[in-house]
Amino acid sequence: MHRSEITVDLGALRRNVRTLVRELGGAELWAVVKANGYGHGAVDVAGAALGSGASALCVATVQEGLALRAEYAGVRILVMGPVASSRDIAHARDADLELAVSDAEIPDGVRVHLKLETGMGRYGLAELPGRTDNVVGLMTHLATADTDPRFARAQLERFTAATAEHAGLTRHAANSAAALRIPESRLDAARCGVALYGLSPFGEDPADDGLEPVLSWQSYLAQVKQRQPGESTGYGRRYVADSPTWIGIVPVGYADGFRRDMTGTEVRVGGEPREVVGTVSMDSFAVRLDRELPVGTPVVLLGHGVLAETHARAAETINYEIVCGIGSDPLRARRTVIDG
Length: 340
Ligand SMILES: *Cc1c(COP(=O)(O)O)cnc(C)c1O
Hints:
Layout (H helix, E strand, L loop, with lengths): L4 E5 H15 L3 E5 L1 H5 L3 H10 L4 E4 L2 H10 L4 E4 L6 H9 L3 E4 L10 E4 L19 E5 L9 H15 L6 E5 L1 H6 L7 E4 L22 E6 L2 E5 L4 E2 L5 E2 L4 E6 L15 E4 L2 E6 L7 E5 L8 E5 L5 H8 L3 H6 L9 E5 L2
Parallel strand pairs: 1-19, 2-3, 2-9, 3-4, 4-5, 5-6, 6-7, 7-8, 8-9
Antiparallel strand pairs: 1-10, 10-18, 11-14, 12-13, 14-17, 15-16, 15-18, 16-17
């Protein structure tokens, strides 16, 4: 038996893609598959997204783009991050990747999207340079689509004003949050990442936006023992029983991506919600049970009602970071792709 099993459901991903395409009402959906598809497996996710309505792929680095180009000839692939070296530009040119450009120097012989700074305060040009032939798109990135739609709308107004004369170019600004909740952000295309994976860009229940989690993660009780009052479990004795308490030990820890700051979150043991107690160690964590359960009882860490958003709240972070951190080391977890 593997210590844990990660299942990626491409059927759920396809349904999320179709939901987003419907929401976009005519704007193109570009699938953001950077960081190995937010930990889900970029190649698998890209294929399913392209097969169900996405019209391009977006990544952060040239290397990510090259890996996808090897699998998907002829598909539009946009590298959104900065490209530092002339070698990377040459690779991008050879592989027909498109590049987001944030400085006035526009590389030759490769299709580019000029990135305008409208309020993110990160990459981006203050104003558009003179038009060059290899510019195919104009883009900006919204800082607050998930939290402050008013500021996002102000960014959009700046962007649409600055780009009004370039209607022939593909204009794109929306991420998942904007695509779902700010209709005027959709423009010609939306760059959606987190929503593809059935995760809420708002940290809420993804079902509220018609999205289904794509990744599930399962392990089992490797040991079950009763702690007496005053006895503890785990490093630092951070959990001490105050009455006789059944504790289950799950053989997954922070080295697998079950973060050390997720103490207090909820997993499902034998289908029932149970609290993670004590210090999460490198290779295991503890759950408090309400009764003795057999060793081998399934424990769901994610999916099937256990939300990344719940873990993110416990860890005071965002669901993005939870899924990006799940380990893909085949020596530690088995990964299965299904098409449910
Ligand atoms: C990562 C990224 C996105 C996707 O954002 P989500 O919130 O995951 O939809 C869109 N645009 C840019 C520039 C990005 O870096």
